[in-house]
Amino acid sequence: MKIDNIVYSKKFIERLRLLPKEIIEIAIEKEVIFRGNPLHSFLRLRELRGRLRGLWSITITNNYRIIFTRMDNGDVLFVSIGKHDIYGSL
Questions:
Q1: Which of 40, 45, 47, 78 has the fewest CB atoms within 10 Å, measured from its CB?
Q2: Number of folded domains in the chain?
């Protein structure tokens, strides 16, 4: 599977701007890996469950995640980014 296009939600962009610079840099590195190989073990890709079913997470660091979903047209939508508290805000 290859990721051709990533779309960023307004919430994702707003939360990204609030992150520390070093976390943003790591997130960019993880996105590059994700584009080339979304199943790379370094991403610790996880399908979410319960009320978050249909969403997936990528691990940035032990405390930070990117939450995304696949759109009908095959694009990936980055929904949110942040610490574990982002799960409650979705």
A1: 47
A2: 1
Tell whether 25 is covered by a domain. yes
* CATH code at position 78: 3.30.2310.20
**Domain boundaries, position 50:** 6-89
pTM: 0.89
DSSP letter for 60, please: S
Residue ranges of the alpha helices (H) in 1-90? 10-17, 21-36
Provide the token pair at 4: 């051709």
For the stretch 16-75, pLDDT in tens is 999 999 999 999 999 999 999 999 999 999 999 999 999 999 999 999 999 999 988 889
